[in-house]
Amino acid sequence: MWPWRSLIIALGFWPIAMSAPDGEFPIYRFKDCVARFQTPRVDPATGVRQSTVEARVTDTTWTQDVQSVTNTFKDFSNAYRQNDALWLSGSTALYYSNFLDATKCGLLINPQSGLNEDDTAISIILPTGLEKLQRVSADLSELSAPDRLATTGIAGLNGQMDRLDYVYTTGKYLKESIKDWQDDSKSLWRQPSTEMGFTAYNADGDPVIIMVDIV
Signal peptide: which range, if any (predicted)? Predict the structure, then answer.
């Protein structure tokens, strides 16, 4: 927890800092979280598209295992409609989802198109949730070389968490936060230049700040 005056100086989040209980609110490092980017789906029967809120991940019980995660990478296009919902490490999530340019990060990441839409629901599991879960990796010995590359920063989950271990934001808001970071005229709060922040909210509407280390 940081005092709100320090946050105002460091980050420029004046409206949120003023409303924070006891003058403080939580700050988390994105690298200590995992995230999932979900574009709203269209119901094939009705043609009705989900809202961004409806596209959020809300499950609190995860039962993925090594085999199910491995099978997901083998069928990355989900042709058999049996894939697990996998999670991105916060350290690489913005590159994989194309919100930041993966060619400039110096890491071997194969970004996925279509995740960086304005109405994308971004669900983030905080460290409080990850403490209750096990991360499940694929069995690399069963995967081809291209599929092994695709596993960078991606894992399944197993265990039970609480609903308030999630926080959420949207593709549109994340883009605005990135633009602010990139815009020199709005960079007074950017300390240092290899770091940016954005606000996310839990299901009860309580805000947190997520700080991102730019590789």
Answer: 1-19
